[in-house]
């Protein structure tokens, strides 16, 4: 079989998640190609060498451009801070290589537009890490909606909140930089916006409010030096969908008690679907005439689930969703699939997020196509 060489840039949490996903994909699925973990890059050469050895990569680079130039690399996976997505992806596209980039796609709509245009012109496969959409239960939700189970869609109510920045003494990081596309909207809300588009459809206009609650944070943990913060701690938006449905989305990284609260309720003329990522193996469905919700539990009848477990109730987790995302990437590179969020779809998410920022700044409804 054809061999595909994987090049991974970055060794943080997402770097490890990608490494696990590529290893798991070749162990779990019968792929039409052979995967080779060809190279890993990190600015810290010693760490690059350590992680390459620990995670099963053949070579380590202290320079990301060297990885892109490596003839053994066919797919470039980018797991770096947001401001590096653009130069790395553009270099990989110029080299004719497939690109698998974490979200958000870029730090500006202009960068995202250039990236999607370059990828289209080069004809390379691209995917962006909106891994929550690869949950078999989200696939089921989309099928139920498409089949008319909910009737005509009326509303989408979504929230993605966590509490990792709830402590005002939590230190500054690159996520607190505007020029790095920091803030709750970029870090968490982009997942929710992508989910809303995936399940309900295009958004035509928005109205929004954003707020920075903690305007200063310690420069480093325990420091008395404070750095100003200008990114949003929380965002609330109203949405109007192309199909006539209305929606609300909110996102916060200050909400005590929540760890991965990507949740939504989708209502139609015949019923309501509800989901919470903290219970990612369940959907709740209420049809007209029911007194309350029915619990739908993930099991091997759902595509994707059976690859990991032959029995219902045994649960998939975050890394399994990442593995399913990688499987779809590999199938696309092999010319046997089109599923997944490519740069074109990710640009649409960035355009929607930009419209929300404009709406909040100018305190008005904004047509998404106008940004």
Q: Sheet with the most strands?
A: 9 strands, mixed
How large is the count of helical segments?
Answer: 9
Output mean pLDDT: 97
Oligomer: single chain
Low-confidence segments, given as residue ranges, are: none
Distance between the termini: 45 Å
Shape: globular
Count of distinct strands:
17
Strand order in the largest sheet: 16-15-14-13-7-12-11-8-17
Order of helices and strands: EHEHEHEHEHEHEHEEEEEEEEEHHE
Indicate the radius of gyration in whole angstroms.
21 Å
How much strand content do the residues show? 25-35%
* Structural class designation: alpha/beta
Helix content: 25-40%
Give an overview of the whole structure.
By secondary structure, the protein is an alpha/beta fold. Helix content is 32%, strand content 25%. The chain contains nine helices and 17 strands. The chain has helices at residues 13-28, 45-55, 64-69, 85-94, 109-122, 136-146, 184-199, 318-333, 343-362, and strands at residues 3-9, 34-41, 59-61, 75-78, 98-101, 126-128, 153-161, 203-211, 216-218, 226-228, 234-241, 246-252, 261-268, 271-276, 282-287, 294-297, 366-367. Strands 16-15-14-13-7-12-11-8-17 form a nine-stranded mixed β-sheet. Helix 5 runs antiparallel to helix 9 (343-362). The N and C termini lie far apart (45 Å).
